Amino acid sequence: AQSVTQLDSHVSVSEGTPVLLRCNYSSSYSPSLFWYVQHPNKGLQLLLKYTSAATLVKGINGFEAEFKKSETSFHLTKPSAHMSDAAEYFCVVKSNDYKLSFGAGTTVTVRA
Amino acid sequence: GAGVSQSPSNKVTEKGKDVELRCDPISGHTALYWYRQSLGQGLEFLIYFQGNSAPDKSGLPSDRFSAERTGGSVSTLTIQRTQQEDSAVYLCASSLELWGLGETQYFGPGTRLLVL
After folding, report:
1. pLDDT class for B110, splitting at 50, 70, 90?
2. What are the tens digits of pLDDT across the range A11-48?
3. Judging by beta carbons within 10 Å of its beta carbon (0-12, 13-18, 19+), is residue A22 exposed, middle or buried?
4. H helices within chain A, ranges in order?
5. Burial class of A112 by CB neighbour count within 10 A (0 to 12, 13 to 18, 19+)
6. Does B90 contact A at CB distance below 8 Å?
7. In this complex, do A46 and B33 lie within 8 Å of one another by their Cβ atoms?
8. Contact residues, A window 15-34, toward B, CB-based 8 Å cutoff
């Protein structure tokens, strides 16, 4: 079975400083991994996706994530946080029966 | 282009009533998924449809929940005899295909259901 653990339920950063959202996964095969973002009262938006083509994946809005098989991690980073990055972020693994398994989510707060 | 749309955006109902939630997927997407987002359970899979194949209903929490997809496009999620624990945001997603380059699931804005 596949599962995802987001290590931080809440992350607070100052505007202009780096953001790091940690995610560990378990999978019995080479997984498809995703990061989605959900702004308040909005739907889920895809940030980026890993499918084994490259271990460093670049997404929208300056976000990127690195797949590390040895650590079973898929951490999300952004060099410089913006106020508009305040949202909830979900790390997601896709199982071989086509279903998405979501982490519990990390709420990001950006301080001015 | 048009994304996944869902209706209604909000629904308030009384315990014991039936509700229908609608999802219009992105045109051309063969796969359609329903998820539920609640405070206690997070985001959880309910059911998916792929083309004309039998749906995978393994995530439906009880036999009060059912879904259909007509003509390979629009889907309706029906909850019979609603209970307070059914209160949640119901999310629909669609993808071009189940696996491969077109596997990315695109989500609608959700239907917020409140059972009184």
Report:
1. very high
2. 999 999 999 999 999 877 778 899 999 998 788 999 99
3. middle
4. none
5. exposed
6. no
7. no
8. 32, 34
